[in-house]
Every structure is written in C-alpha cells, then in structure tokens.
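The aim of this short unit is practical: by the end, you should be able to scan a pair of folded records and say something sensible about each. We start with the first protein, listed as its amino acid sequence and then its structure tokens.
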Amino acid sequence: QVQLAESGGGSVQVGGSLKLSCTVSPNIFSLCGMGWYRQAPGKDRELVSSISTDGTATYTDSIKGRFTISRDNAKNTLYLQMNSLKTEDTAVYSCAASRHSGGDFYSLCPDNYWGQGTQVTVSS
C-alpha cells in the first residue's frame, strides 16, 4: 500500500554527502511530477527540487550547485544527491508526486502523494 518510500537519510558532518532514494509505485511515477521537499525544525515545508518526466529539473536557490535531482524510469526511483552539506540542510526530507510540478500540469496523475520522510542531520 506504500506508494512512495524514502531511504538514504542519516547523519553526516558539514561538507559530507548523502544520496536519498524514493521508490514509487509505477502508476504514480510514470504519470506525476516528482520532487523533494524538506522541513526543518520551526520552519515550513519547502520545495527543494522537482523533476519532470523528461528530466527537466528545478532547484531552490539555497541548494543550487550542491544538490542534484535525478530519476531512473526503469526502476521507478527518484534520487537526490546532496553534496557539500551544511548544518542548515538539516531537515526531514520527503518525496512527493503531484499533479502540478515545476510549472507543468500532469493531467493523468491521479492525486498528490507524499512519502513518510527521511531524516537528514548535518553536524559541525
């Protein structure tokens, strides 16, 4: 029954790297826009990055040049490679599938979906 499931979170030191993965139900992955959100303590959830079915990506300014979103359509998996991590990157990272993503409308995407999240902690 799990439609999106994140993995790869953990604790790293400043400057370290992590790669998050999100496995997605095939019917969702092929029809929806995909993205990564994060929510830090005391802050609202924010969109970190999105990617379209053809690979077009968006990034929030705070992580540009450090994070890379990608997808493997054969494996129905979304990735977020995080490099040069900073303490302010500490948050729960969640995978999402949506009908509106990156300025596009995915008319065949049935609904909006969220994973349960994976904790990323960056310490100094």
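Turning to the second protein, read its sequence before its tokens, just as you did above.
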Amino acid sequence: QLQLVESGGGLVQPGGSLRLSCAASGFTLDYYAIGWFRQVPGKEREGVSCISSSDDTNYANSVKGRFTISRDNAKNTLYLQMNSLKPEDTAVYYCAALRAYGGKCTLLYWPYDHWGQGTQVTVSS
C-alpha cells in the first residue's frame, strides 16, 4: 500500500517551466531520502535531484541551477521545480524514496525502494 504518484508533467516549450509533484501515501517522507529520476527510452535511468531526511540536496550537473527540489513533510509531497527547460530534459520523470536518515542522498537509482509510475515531460517547440 506504499505509493508514490507523480503529477505535473506535460508539454512545454524550451525555456519554459514546469513543477512536478510526487504525493506519497502509506508512509511519511520525513523518514526517507527522496529523489527525482528520469529515463529516456533505451537509456539508463538517471538521477536528477534528491533530498535527504535532513534536507541536504544533491543535483545532477546537467540540471544544477535550473531545477530545485523541495519537500513538504506536512503534505507528504515532493516537488521538482524545473526552469529554463531544454529539449534534452525530455524524459519520463520518476520520484523515488529510500528509507534513510541524514547524510547526503544518492543519485544512484538502485538503492531506492519505492517508485512512482512516472510522468512524461516533453520539451519541444
């Protein structure tokens, strides 16, 4: 009954913005490291950004300065604000959670235990 449900994806022009949301149920995100990952068909899943239970953040170099990750523990929701979007940001975006406390979160995908079903982000003119 542990679920992560993404929303907010869609079609946006280059330079535009989107905010992705990930609503968690069945567990509380404050006990977890949570992150955003993306995947293009035929390519390996890539870590985009993550935030630890102590609010330390980590960003892929390709999105640093453009994307911002945040969490609202009261709402049990994770967000990814994406600005200055580029065509190469096009992918299916997944949120994921890993039970962990403190430290800096990892952008490796394999340790994460819980995954959403993904939301499509397409950046195109």
